[in-house]
Amino acid sequence: MEAIAKLKHLKGSPRKARLVIDLIRGQNVSQALSILKFTDKRAALPIAKCLNSAIANATYLAEQQNIAIDPDDLWVNLCYVDMGPTKNRRRMRPAPQGRAYREQRHYCHITIQVTSEDKPKTEKQLLAEAAKKVKPLGKKLAAKAAGVEPKKAKAEKPAVEPVIEEVVETSPVVEAVEETLVETAAETVETIEATEAEVAVETVEADAAELPTEKVEDAEKKD
Question: What pTM was estimated for this model as a whole?
Answer without folding.
Answer: 0.55
